């Protein structure tokens, strides 16, 4: 099912800051559901704090799902402050991850630009 051209594009920014691996799985599942409903939807996942572990190659159990979603245009970003505080290097992240200066700044910019804010737990 695709979004009709007369409707505005669905755009969302999702905050993920939990170490809960079941929550990670649910967030990815919800994104997949959205893309089934509207394949043109724009989704950005902002990872901060322990949520950064989702997008670390050595700490996630969801690498297949992450790669599939990234290939479909889902944007995954990491908070540089969180990386610095936890001594995580960029090389530990998947290559499709973008680093932003701060999660809070990225969330505010996304909302200012009209994206719906979601924090799925």
What does this structure look like?
This protein has about 120 residues and is an alpha/beta fold. The protein has one domain: DsrEFH-like (Hypothetical Protein Ychn, Chain: A), CATH 3.40.1260.10. The chain has helices at about 20-35, 65-70, 80-85, 105-110; strands at about 10-15, 40-45, 75-80, 100, 115-120. Strands 4-3-2-1-5 form a five-stranded parallel β-sheet, sandwiched between helices. β2, α2 (about 65-70) and β3 (about 75-80) form a beta-alpha-beta unit. The longest helix has 17 residues, at about 20-35. The chain is globular.
Compose a concise summary of this entry.
The chain has 4 helices and 5 strands.
The main sheet comes to: 5 strands, parallel
Task: Spell the H/E element sequence.
Answer: EHEHEHEHE
Helical fraction: 25-40%
Shape type: globular
Average pLDDT across residues? 94
N- and C-termini, Cα separation: 26 Å
CATH superfamily: DsrEFH-like
Q: Class, according to the CATH hierarchy?
A: Alpha Beta
CA-based gyration radius:
14 Å
Number of domain modules = 1
Instruction: Give the strand tally.
Output: 5
CATH architecture group name? 3-Layer(aba) Sandwich
Low-confidence stretches: none
Helix/strand structural class: alpha/beta
Question: Remind me, CATH topology?
Answer: Hypothetical Protein Ychn, Chain: A
Strand content: 15-25%
In the sheet with the most strands, the strands line up as 4-3-2-1-5
Q: Give the number of helices.
A: 4
Organism: Ferrimicrobium acidiphilum
InterPro entries: DsrEFH-like, Sulphur_relay_DsrE/F-like
Pfam families: DsrE
Protein name: DsrE family protein
